[in-house]
Amino acid sequence: MPGAPKPRSRLLTVVAQDPSVRDPRGPRHRRILRARVEVPAEELQQGPGGYRVQVVDYDVSNDVYYKPCALDESGDAYEKKGDRTLLADPGFHCQNVYALVMRTLARFEFALGRRVSWGFYGHHLNVVPHAFADANAFYSPEDHALLFGYFPDRQGKMVYTCLSHDIVVHEATHALLDGLRVRFTEPSSPDQAAFHEGFADIVALLSVFALPDVAKVVIDLASAGKGRRRRRSEVIRKKDLTREALRRSGLLGLAEQFGSELSVVRGSALRRSVDELWPPSPRYYRDDPEFEESHRRGEILVAAVMSAFLDAWHDRLAALDPSGSGIMSRDRVVEDGAEIADTFLTMVIRALDYTPPVHVEFGDFLSAALTSDAEVRPDDSRYGLRRRLLERFRDYGIEPASAGDGAGNVGFWRPPPAGVEYGRTHFEQMRSEPDEVFRFAWENRDELELSKEAYSRVISVRPSVRVGPDGFVLREVVAELIQTLAVKARELHRYGIRRPAGMPGEVDVTLQGGGTMVFDEYGLLKYYIHNDVVSPTRQPTRLEYLWEHGYFRRGSAAFRRFSNLHRQRAAGQQVLSPEVW
Amino acid sequence: MAPPQRVTIRSYQVGFGDCFLLGFHYRRSSRFVLIDFGSTGKAKGAPSNHLVKVAESIRDACGGRLHAVVATHRHADHVSGFATRADKKGSGDVIAALKPDVVVQPWTEDPDARPDARRPTRVSQPGRALIGMLDDLHAVAGAVHKEVQSWPARSRARSQLSFLGETNLANLSAVKNLMKMAGKQQRYVHFGAASGLRLPGVKVSVLGPPTVEQTDTILKQRSRDADEFWHLQALAGEFSVSTRALLFARRHVLKGSPPRSSRWLLERLKATRREQLREIVRILDKALNNTSVILLFEVGGHKLLFPGDAQLENWQFAMSKPAVMKRLEDVTVYKVGHHGSLNATPKTLWNNFKHRGPANTPDRLQTFVSTMPGKHGSTARETEVPRRTLVAALKRESDFHTSQTVKPKDLFREVTLTV
Known about the structure:
The complex is a heterodimer of chains A (581) and B (419).
Chain A lengths: L8 E7 L6 E2 L7 E2 L1 E7 L12 E3 L2 E2 L4 E2 L17 H6 L1 H23 L12 E9 L3 E4 L4 E8 L5 E3 L4 H16 L9 H20 L2 H13 L10 E3 L5 H15 L5 H4 L2 H8 L6 H4 L7 H23 L10 E3 H22 L10 H15 L8 H11 L31 H4 L3 H10 L11 E13 L5 E16 L19 E12 L5 E7 L7 H10 L13 H10 L10
Parallel strand pairs in A: 5-8, 8-10
Antiparallel strand pairs in A: 1-4, 2-3, 6-7, 9-10, 10-11, 12-13, 14-15, 15-16, 16-17
Chain B lengths: L5 E7 L6 E7 L4 E8 L12 H13 L5 E3 L5 H4 L11 H6 L5 E5 L18 H24 L7 H12 L4 H10 L4 E4 L13 E6 L3 H7 L5 H20 L19 H27 L4 E6 L2 E5 L5 H8 L2 H7 L4 E3 L11 H6 L13 E4 L18 H10 L1 E4 L9 E7 L1
Parallel strand pairs in B: 3-4, 4-5, 5-6, 9-10, 10-11, 11-12
Antiparallel strand pairs in B: 1-2, 1-13, 2-3, 7-8, 8-9
Helix pairs in contact in B: 4-5, 4-8, 4-9, 5-9
């Protein structure tokens, strides 16, 4: 006789942001702000270790192995524990990273409507919460792992990067993005170098704001004003929640509470996006050489998304006060803020499927977000997220890669080319078999503008089932095709590509290109989002950038490892230069 | 006094390190300037007291009196020879006895500008913060050095990191000796400062290192996180190696062997840690190189450029000045920066030298490199020192002098310039 159905999810306590962000309204005044998050339920072994995440508590600096943590099947052992236990019990640290990584994975799987792989060959991601004494945390594909460092602060108090929500989600996002777009870590344009960091910051911040407990803190800070005593009340006066108050006292106020020591690990994306990069200006992206550096450039992406989030939240307040009394329910304001953050989070993750497989630029990401969101969530009238995203990106000088779909939707990807042939392929096979998708591409190589000289390969075929807010189900198959062409620099002119000044003719140049094919539920090509391998407009700019920045050097890959990126930013290092021998 | 009639450049064989003795020979007398004296790798066949022999050779050459000592920066391969011994028989004791009139060091070594100094200083607050950060760098180097001692003996990673860690230690004995040997005649210089050298008929200019304020005029503000980063890194290193403390109560530590399932990961983590430490040391090594004093000597038709180990970030301020670049066009003697590494001879600087050229070029540029292969960098990553592409250019376009061809028993090579 079958037993009772097993629960599909469970709640686990985590630190809502990091231990320095305190709960001003909790029953125990000023204790660490925490949250209970929903994660998929599963059969766990000690660690905890589940089907996708294995926590291994080994400290390599001191060669110490801490006892694996045993989470019971359904309970939340740390829900009622005090701050001291949370900080001093490694078991809680293990629970914290396990829950946040699983939550991030689940968030990606929900948004993309399918299982999502890590960026390495294997099912298990090792998560090491106390990996080394070092002001660093990073995703290490070679180790199949997320590694979190620890270090004492100036007062001698230990700072654990594994207890910082945004740092954990940021690193987990690197591992997931690396699985979804393997070529995004390769040398390309300043935008692609910045995209991994910027996107991971966006997911991390929206993930934090999607927690109602954090949204509450933002609202309290914003409505109380800087330096004024916060009052506990069920209602908020609308005039206290101006857009400026939300930005300065709310978001910036929260950013200032973030553990300052951790800024050497995480950077200061939130503070910079709502303070230093305010008001928006196109000059950062277009004219300022400082923003060619990948971390700084990534902050522009964060600023554009965060200001769209701020707009949407603020403008929603009018709807929460239909009578015009000037008084709103605090809980409703908080709920809406968390929901907007969550919707934005889904939107940016979903956009990944609609990006080209290689050479992503910020404009590609914008067109991808607008198009993919409209496919699942056609009605955007509640929050107007697509309109705001387009406006804010433009404020920061980022134009969508596509002018529009020809049907009046500005920035949307265009429909695929006409004349695509389906007669020799079988869609049932195309749902999972790269060879069948490749046959489709081969038969349509002229229509898809594929280079006949380049090496071509379908690197992924992913069926997805997405559910819209109205319960509407969208089925798609997303496939990536890559083209690679190896030439000598002196041969570039044959393809109409300008050779960078000073590049010797015998230098080996590998050109990359390709396209993402999105098929609808009937097997018809819905979108073809591509960067041509021999594009005479985009390739020369990329090659010049790569040549000038030393990416053609043999050892340059070492400088781009995730393990080194944060440290290079923190230490202000210039890593690659055209001046070297 | 009339200008010198000739100038001698003596490059000592110190293995991996720098030691140059410049002689300015006037009609009736000579003045000698010692630029750096250090080593972190003995040349093959050199005896254990090799540095003392070098010091004695310097003493004999200068007749028991040095006009100046220049310690370009605090790396062991540039200052270890200044270290003293309790029995007063160290190479640094020999040099101290030569009673230099002046000791020149970068402004970052100014004891009055240290965060804990009590005397007034002209160094600005950001400059003092940078000096504090350099202290942290030494502490991090010390921690790395200690941590690698627990690794398997004779491993390549251990010897490589020991070498780099050792280079970046505080080298306190040498530093104290340098402070003491010239009494009050200490010069802590920056771009544009007076060098303090008194060499009649010779113009000596300081082209580096820039101050924090000078750097800020050409680059965006120095990373605001850098000071904090290195301080926390130093604290982390201190925690890890000096206390071997546990993060949590002992009851949380697993007794016995780790689970078999994690063996692969544990080995991987050790390899990753080694890579991490290598990267940390590379960054701090570079930061200290960039405190190097850069000196330009102009005498008669000759221009002698001695940049220590300055790398691009140090050079950038001088290179941003068109007038400086104009003066550097006709350099005739170039001491190759940082033992011939890939990033210490900026290509813009090299291409600016007009006396480069094939063998028959009039007044052809002379280049001196003091180096030793196999100590720094890797050929596979194209970071080897000396960098072969640079050496090829030096050989092709200059009269190239390398310490690699000087036998330890010969001690030095000397070149004479007629003024």
